[in-house]
Design brief:
Strand content: 35-45%
Pfam family, one: NUDIX
CATH architecture: Alpha-Beta Complex
CATH class: Alpha Beta
Distance between the termini: 33 Å
Radius of gyration: 14 Å
Mean pLDDT: 95
CATH superfamily: Nucleoside Triphosphate Pyrophosphohydrolase
Number of helices: 3
Helix content: 10-25%
GO molecular function: hydrolase activity
InterPro entries: NUDIX_hydrolase-like_dom_sf, NUDIX_hydrolase_CS, NUDIX_hydrolase_dom
Protein name: ADP-ribose pyrophosphatase YjhB (NUDIX family)
Keywords: Hydrolase
Length: 139
């Protein structure tokens, strides 16, 4: 039986319209993480984005998508079905970006929408889906 995991993530833009991307384990991604039992999905998104990027001056917008993907937990061997709630967010470009090394995040960068295609070649299908629903790509 699959275990259901609820997570939250952010599609963050700055005042120049750039999109925040993180680089983790060889893949470009958006910040996201598992919801803790005692928090709302909105609180989860804010916490995870802060932890993974170092950003604190964040504004949470509307939910734009829920993606579902399955994987096998490498530690327990359990089958997991992960439901990630994605929200639009705004951040200040001047704020320092700090990759969360403990989560294997090696880079946090701002990407111009016109340059997005090169990052999408090295990302997950669910990230392309989120960007598409937000109107950033026709991929």
């Amino acid at each position: 039986m699959k275990k259901i995991v609820i997570a939250g993530g952010g599609l963050i833009t700055n005042e120049d319209g750039e999109i925040l991307m993180i680089f983790r384990r060889g893949i470009w991604d958006l910040p996201k993480g598992k919801k803790e039992e005692d928090e709302t999905i909105q609180t989860c998104v804010m916490r995870e984005v802060e932890e993974e990027t170092g950003l604190h001056q964040l504004t949470l917008g509307n939910e734009i998508a829920v993606t579902v993907h399955e994987y096998v937990d490498t530690y327990s061997g359990n089958e997991i079905e992960k439901h990630t709630h994605w929200f639009l967010m705004k951040a200040n470009k001047a704020e320092k970006l700090i990759p969360q090394a403990i989560e294997d995040i090696s880079e946090v960068i701002w990407v111009k929408p016109s340059d997005l295609h090169q990052y999408l070649q090295h990302t997950y299908p669910s990230i392309i889906e989120v960007l598409k629903k937000a109107g950033y790509t026709n991929a």
